[in-house]
């Protein structure tokens, strides 16, 4: 138990077991309060558990599979309790483990190829090893350094998510560990662990292996030791990724997850992630990976082969509620469009010229209109268009307006407004019902509004829009009215109409700027309660009582009004202090 008072509580069941002359570890593990007693640092219990024989038995529960016909306690309860005892982080128990070579061999025997690896025990093994990483980092890393085969064995089990979590921390892609114990992990920088992980894209057909390999590599791009950071953004490593991704015989999951790693290398938004904010105070211990021009050039070398995959000849059909897709877009093509979107955000003139030359932007915009119900695709293509329009290079803006003809395509889609029955595109409506309205109107509206916003500061956009009489007419008769209808601050449905001039993301400013007339609010509340506009549980209770009188009612009103006033005054002070 966490605490006791003499005379008010009986003896702990754990102490009762420890009072016996002969008792076993299993008896203690079967007692429900053993974890509480460990956390309460019960000295008699800890002195028993710190013994090598007991630590060894606890490890066997964690790493050894049992026959299927074993008791449930042995299969489930004892392994769980044993793992929880280790993760209580009791120093003497952990010291017994890390200072004994045989016990460490027993722990890491779990990752040997001939050992069964159930999901349940993998989770327990992972928790114990991560606990040692956090509390006994130096001894653990010294042991792993002396047994380099452990890293290879962990990579071979990368398809198990729990093992993946161990590997992420082991190679230093965890700011909490690496920032404090960078010296203990320097040896890993000279290994081929990143190459071994990347090669899993080629040696395995399992989507889980591909996803976990990408997760580890993405973690390295966010927080990694310096030499690993240099290696993962090198042109040779990027080339290795694209080589695996573009192999015709490989599953599409290889392409999807390889591109996820490249996107993580390029995407500047990762700098604002939570992990970065937690780690930025320790930047001297690790490095955020930034894509160099050489890295971008390495990616652009494979861009042509990548873009060929956007044009598919597959004949597979996907039935939908509005008809069917022939063929569906697919995760791999969606990921390629996302990759193009991120390439345009890094400000590389070389990348922009190559995307224009190979018509990558034009093909992405075509997909936007060919798949009018895929909002994931619409989001990425909108980002592509906005990046081009907001860019500083006129060549990119003219390409979107002229070669891609974004304005003309928007007007054609708006004119049709419904899914075409005569189109030869991949999205085919059902013959049994009327064609539905296309689903990308909202994104087209946002793109149109962005064009109008930017024309005031960009003569190229302004001239292009003014020359198009159909656009001017559509903007006047359709877009302006649509924006008015979609302005939520004009809706008479409970929203404050006085805020129509505020931006749609100004909720914080609303609370920050609003001033409260406390005296007027108090008077209104008093009147409301007096005439029964608001229910008052206290008043109803008083009225239902045999001893009700006016004094009780007035007191209830007073208490309720005071409570409201305190809340309002508190809101006012908080909003002004933010």
Layout of secondary structure:
Elements: H1 13-18, H2 25-29, H3 34-39, H4 43-49, H5 52-63, H6 72-87, H7 91-98, H8 101-108, H9 119-135, H10 137-146, H11 149-156, H12 161-170, H13 175-178, H14 193-198, H15 200-203, H16 207-222, H17 226-232, H18 235-245, H19 252-266, H20 274-279, H21 293-300, H22 303-308, E1 318-319, E2 323-325, H23 331-343, H24 349-357, H25 360-370, H26 375-390, H27 394-403, H28 406-416, E3 427-429, H29 441-455, H30 459-467, H31 469-486, H32 507-513, H33 518-530, H34 537-543, H35 550-577
Antiparallel strand pairs: 1-2, 2-3
Architecture overview:
With 578 residues, the chain is mostly helical. The protein is 63% helix and 1% strand. The protein is built from 35 helices and three strands. It has a three-stranded antiparallel sheet, with no helix packed on it. β1 and β2 form a beta hairpin.
Compute the gyration radius: what is it?
Answer: 33 Å
The computed structural class is mainly alpha
Main β sheet profile: 3 strands, antiparallel
Distance between the termini: 43 Å
Helix content: 55-70%
Keywords:
elongated, 3 strands, disordered C terminus, single chain, 578 residues, 35 helices, 1% strand, mainly alpha, three-stranded antiparallel beta sheet
How would you briefly describe this protein structure?
The protein is an all-alpha fold.
């Amino acid at each position: 138990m966490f605490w006791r008072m003499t005379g008010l509580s009986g003896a702990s069941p754990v102490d009762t077991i420890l009072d016996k002359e002969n008792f076993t570890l299993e008896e203690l593990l079967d007692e429900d309060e053993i974890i509480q007693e460990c956390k309460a640092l019960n000295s008699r219990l800890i002195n028993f558990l710190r013994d090598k024989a007991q630590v060894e038995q606890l490890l066997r529960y964690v790493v050894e599979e049992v026959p299927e016909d074993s008791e449930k306690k042995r299969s489930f309860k004892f392994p769980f309790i044993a793992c929880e005892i280790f993760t209580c982080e009791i120093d003497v128990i952990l010291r017994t483990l890390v200072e004994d070579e045989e016990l460490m061999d027993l722990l890491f025997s779990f990752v040997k190829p001939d050992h069964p690896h159930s999901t349940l025990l993998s989770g327990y093994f992972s928790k114990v090893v991560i606990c040692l990483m956090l509390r006994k980092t130096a001894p653990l890393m010294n042991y792993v350094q002396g047994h380099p085969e452990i890293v290879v064995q962990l990579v071979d089990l990368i398809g198990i998510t729990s093992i993946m979590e161990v590997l992420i921390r082991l190679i230093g892609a965890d700011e909490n560990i690496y920032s404090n114990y960078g010296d203990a992990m320097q040896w890993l920088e000279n290994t081929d662990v990143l190459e071994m992980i990347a090669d899993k894209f080629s040696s395995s057909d399992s989507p889980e292996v591909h996803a976990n390999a990408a997760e580890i590599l993405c973690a390295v791009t966010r927080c990694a030791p310096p030499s690993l950071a240099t290696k993962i953004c090198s042109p040779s490593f990027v080339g290795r990724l694209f080589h695996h991704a573009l192999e015709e015989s490989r599953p599409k999951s290889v392409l999807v997850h390889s591109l996820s790693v490249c996107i993580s290398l390029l995407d500047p938004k990762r700098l604002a992630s939570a992990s970065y904010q937690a780690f930025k105070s320790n930047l001297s211990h690790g490095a955020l990976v930034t894509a160099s021009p050489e890295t971008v050039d390495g990616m652009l070398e494979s861009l042509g082969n990548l873009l060929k995959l956007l044009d598919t000849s597959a004949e597979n059909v996907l039935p939908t509620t509005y008809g069917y897709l022939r063929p569906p877009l697919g995760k791999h093509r969606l990921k390629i469009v996302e990759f193009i979107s991120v390439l345009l955000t890094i400000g590389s003139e070389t990348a922009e010229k190559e995307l224009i030359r190979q018509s990558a932007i034009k093909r992405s915009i075509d997909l936007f209109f060919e798949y009018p119900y895929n909002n994931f695709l619409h989001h990425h293509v909108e980002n592509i268009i906005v990046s081009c329009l907001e860019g500083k290079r006129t060549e990119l803006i003219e390409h979107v307006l002229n070669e891609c003809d974004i304005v003309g395509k928007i007007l054609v889609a708006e004119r049709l407004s419904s899914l075409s029955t005569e189109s030869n595109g991949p999205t085919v409506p059902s013959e049994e019902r009327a064609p539905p309205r296309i689903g990308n109107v909202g994104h087209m509206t946002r793109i149109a509004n962005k064009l109008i916003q930017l024309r005031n500061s960009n003569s190229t956009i302004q001239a292009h829009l003014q020359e198009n009489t159909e656009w001017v007419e559509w903007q006047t008769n359709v877009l302006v009215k649509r924006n008015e209808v979609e302005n939520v601050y004009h809706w008479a449905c409970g929203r404050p109409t006085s805020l129509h001039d505020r931006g749609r993301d100004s909720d914080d400013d609303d609370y920050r700027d609003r001033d409260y007339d406390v005296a007027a609010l108090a008077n209104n509340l008093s009147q409301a309660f007096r005439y029964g506009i608001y229910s008052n549980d206290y008043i109803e209770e008083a009225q239902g009582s045999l001893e009700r009188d006016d004094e009780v009612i007035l007191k209830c009103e007073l208490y309720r009004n005071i409570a409201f006033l305190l809340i309002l005054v508190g809101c006012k002070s908080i909003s002004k202090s933010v």
